[in-house]
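dumping this here before i forget
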Amino acid sequence: MLIDTHAHLTYPPLSDETDQIIARAQQAGVMRILTVGTSPEDSRSAVALAEKYENVFAIVGIHPNDANAYPSLDELRPLLLSPKVLALGETGLDYHHSDADHENQHRLFIQHIELARETHLPLIVHCREAFDDTLSILGTSGREARGVFHCFSGTPEQATFLIEQGWLISFSGTVTFKTLKRFAAVLLRSARIISLSKPIVHFCRPNRCERFVRMNPLLWPIPPGFWRICLGCRWNVFRKKRSKTLKKFSARN
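structure:
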């Protein structure tokens, strides 16, 4: 069973044809979809969608790019009453192109960590060009926090550290970018060094660079040869390992 762990079904144009998107995703073998909220408004839409469709679940949070607009997570708390909410996020730090003040990002990230501790929910962490500060905050405020480092863009050494700390890691379609060969090569080395015996998540849609179609669950399935080349393992072996990990991750305690 394939599980899309990070979709944005509430974003247009996907939100304009949700029924068709979910039906086509199931036909392609994607049997469970986790749709991620990036603001209180978007998170409410994600929960409503999850409660409408049996195979859709919600992740609620405030994206670091929007940290200036929200002083707290109070608007998210009522959403956590829904059994269809499986995690908090996406949260974290973004120093690449975010207009949000770093201090506000730090504050909101810590609030997500504290809420995760209170609710025993995993975190979906967005970290872009802010690895040291992200680890520093987790080291002081979130030592017990666990979850997924979404769309990992770090080094093999950083990947190893996170795995040893009990985090899951996701690799997106950035590993296939022809225009970023050196960057892609580093990510592929990160992927290869992680043993399949570890509980790790990969979801890799090669079209990540296409802004308005990149979250389409229909595009999740990857040609088996890609994984054989990248990770040195057969697709069926990898898929069984991944599905076992994701079933545990997407089951709310």
